[in-house]
Here is the input.
Amino acid sequence: MSNAPHILVIDDERQILRAIRTILTEKQFRVTTASRGEEGLALAAANEPDLVILDLGLPDMDGVEVCQRLREWTQTPIIILSVRDSERDKVAALDMGADDYLTKPFGIEELLARVRVALRHSSRMQGTQSKVVNAGTITIDLAFHIVKRGDEEVKLTGREYKLLAYLASNHGRVLTHQSILTHVWGPEDADHTEYLRVYMRQLRKKLELDPERPQYILTEPGIGYRFIADE
Amino acid sequence: MNSVNMQNFSFLSRLWQYLIAFLLIASVTVLFFALRDVLDTTLIALLYLIPLGIITAYWGLGPGITSALITFLTFNYFFIQPYYTLTVHRPADVVILMVFLIVAIVISQLVGRAQAGLAAATAREREATQLYELSTAFAGLPNDHAIVQILAKQVYAVAQGEYVELNVTGAHPFAYRLPEIEPPLRSPELIIPIEAARGVLGEIRLWRAAPVISPREKRLFQTFTSQGALALERAWLAQAESRARVLEESDQLKSAILSSVSHELRTPLSTIKAAASSLRGKQVSWDSPARTELIAAIDDEADHLNMLVGNLLDMSRIESGALKPKREWNILPEIIGSVLARMKHLAEEHQIKVDVPESLPLVPVDYVQMEQVFTNLVSNSLKYAPANSVVCIRAQVEDESIHVQVSNQGPQVPPQDLKRIFDKFYRITAADKVTGTGLGLSICKGIIEAHGGNIWAENIPDGLAFNFTLPLIWDGARPPQLPMDTEAE
Here is the structure.
């Protein structure tokens, strides 16, 4: 039990805290809760949790600021919770260093999936990164730059491969438009979301069974993209 | 300094009148002098009355009397013997002279008085006309700015002003200036307050040549300003009334929303409550299929509830004008695809066909808001169209915009209602037969219009079609053509 990952939940709504705590405890996580930003920061410093779940709408301070203050000293993964229509805040928090987000109301499966992905990425940062990513029939070999669909190799342009490799090595996580553009094109093209739209469409045509209803390269409306690989 | 000049000018014009009167008498005198031997003295005296009458008629009493006295002296000097003296020898001449003086003065006075009376009557008539014009201009003016403009123009015209500034105080102060330039540097010659029963509404500041205000002008300005004050109060009252009406309407709207919403919210809540309490109360055994069914109902109804709340938020955002699209160049099929993927479980009984050409250019839209539009149009189609019918989404470029059509094989809408289905809370069928807040289509309208497009519905041979257009030009820019790298690695 003491080896179980420790999760700090910061949210001012008691019913949400109650629900999240019940579910996460049931799933064998250790859970600490805080209902204010300052309290959350203090608990984070004292307990060094493995993961922080942070609501963006806190009564005493802006969630984006909490995110920023956490990132000043720790790389522990942060999942933010927010309501619909606050894409701007979500993007700000993600660009500030948060790892993922959930829109309220959310399903528990979704929450657990995000927690799993975030914990996996943080453990991988300390260990070695897996060199092969599998998603359905797609195999992406990051070491040898080979992409296969079934047994057949998929021909990708240089840019397409770079894009896919960035998505695949962060599979399960949301990547903001800005972060993808900065990584794949360079900081000077960080505003050209139309590049992303067009390249993503091409990638989907080459990889997805039905490019109009993608299974692997998912759009996160107003935020960015997420690559879904096998667990 | 300017006013001093103007005063001089007025004095000069006065002097000029006397000078002309004098010249007239002089020239008449020269004429009579030439005919002195032919004309009788009494005849000359009679003839002298003609220029006197003319002078009084034209320039009034002052020049008239003065001319009469001068004529008296001239007549005596040139035409009464002994000539070139003011002495009179013959008693008859004394009589002529005296009679002449009396007649000349009486004529001058009579004509002058008639003249003054006429002038006063004309002035009164003009005043009355101006007032009449002003009050007819004010009548039917609901706008305080227009009233102030007319008042300023009238004052400007009547006062022969050089510059007029009309300041209105109160809750929304504003000023009107005539001509529309910066006011003169000096302080105004006249400040007339605009007073109403409830206090001062503002003031008229008048710059003009003659600083002296005549009683007539004072009376006129007072009438003007009180008329203006009345008109302003009437306009403000009308505005307040229409504001009150808008408030009342929005109040009615709010109660309509509340009643619709509480009805709509209660339906999923009832399901959730019933399912959750029966699960909690252990009436349903752990492994029965009913349990799975109840849990699925809770989950679905919670989603439904979330959608209702989302619609309400969108509507309030549209109503308050806070819906600002965050535009980016997007691929329409991607948006349609993600909407259809999300609605898969709702569309099991229908067939959805997408007919969008591959060559469609990028469109400058807000991704999230356009998802909302497609979601609402498709879900509306699914709600009304019979099972197993086809819902079709088409898109094509038309000139510099894109035309999208979502059609279904559901019931047609009476032609007179085709526009109204985009109104809030409008429903084709009775509210309790179909679920929803009645907001979906009006949200679509709000979003499409915020993007600079149009939305309309039309009856098609086998059903109903929703159409909308979206401009392809964004800030003067056309859809970008991207340089693609085609070489394979």
Observations:
- Chain B has ten helices and eleven strands.
- Residues 1-6 of chain B have pLDDT under 50 and may be disordered.
- Residues 23 and 29 of chain B are 10 Å apart (CA to CA).
